[in-house]
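pasting dTDP-4-amino-4,6-dideoxygalactose transaminase for the record, 377 residues
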Amino acid sequence: MLPYGRQSISDDDVEAVTAVLGSDWLTTGPAVTRFEDDLSAHSGGHGVVAVTSGTAALHVAYAAAGIGPGDDVVTSPLTFVATASAAALLGARVIFADVSEDTGNLDPGAAKAALTPATKVVAGVDYAGHPIDAEPLRALAHDAGALLLEDAAHSVGGRWQGRPVGDLADLTTLSFFPTKNLTTAEGGAVVSPSESLTAGARSFRNHGLVRDPGALRFPDEGPWHQEVHAFGLNYRLPDVLAALGSSQLTRLEAFSARRAEIHARYDTALADVAEVRTPSRREGAEPAWHLYPLRVLDGRRRALFEFLRERGIGVQVNYVPAYWHPVFADLGYRRGLCPVAEEYYRQEVSLPLFPALADDDVDRVSALVREFFGYGG
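structre below
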């Protein structure tokens, strides 16, 4: 089975991990600091807080933003459920706003219409690796007294209007799952230009522990003393995984370039297939393509999916609209809420895309898609 995504591990990656295994620090050590610094260099030079997953990054970011009961979070439904569930777990009400028909990203007009006096965060998603429409989203969020969060799980290494992902929002969350644009096996990060938001993220990542003598309420307790002033969790990324991340970052540009080549090859091969729509890219976007979201326009998405799977092509669908999940349905969310996102979902199938994918494999997948729709030789 040809997978739709796969990690790219080199001998240098193995050596980097092995070196940490022979050191004094398996976690909470210098490799984490180095990875955060390395990642900052690719993310606008801002503060970075490494955590254990992309979901953890969302939870930490919402916590740093002070999200809690009584707050509203406006976000896209065309995303993995964690974009919404991480806010809901903190007690927020999630308000889903529809997406732009071309990119599948949060539509600024729909987001503006969804704002309430209680909105504290507007969370856009870089669907498939295409950056959000940052300027209008940032403006409408700030005008409402809210923060802009960019769920950039798909797009590390991408740019929008010349600015890198990580430099577009008040909070940016990243994911380093094996199929993502770089990997730490499991892992994620929160990026922010705000020192206070970064400090809040660091605190929540580490149980909310306070060790600074000047901040302790009981500083005379003893040199061992530490306190928790606000609840947090253990979302610390181990040094072993951080070392893998630093090694992977040295190849991020090469990964992104190869993903772009594969993307363009699919575009060319499928350009004349009237029954499908290839992914859109807006002027000024330099996506770090994580997915190749092909859209099937004639209602045969499932048939194409099964046709390809039967022939050993590991296609995927990204994503079921978040509020279709029973956990949201049980809270009163109903289908039909975001019709553009729902239609996008009904059409979408993700073709294989990862740096080690050979041109011959891209051509084989493309030929099978063409065969399914009756386009010969």
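The CA atoms of residues 316 and 350 lie 5 Å apart.
The chain has two domains: 11-249, 252-372.
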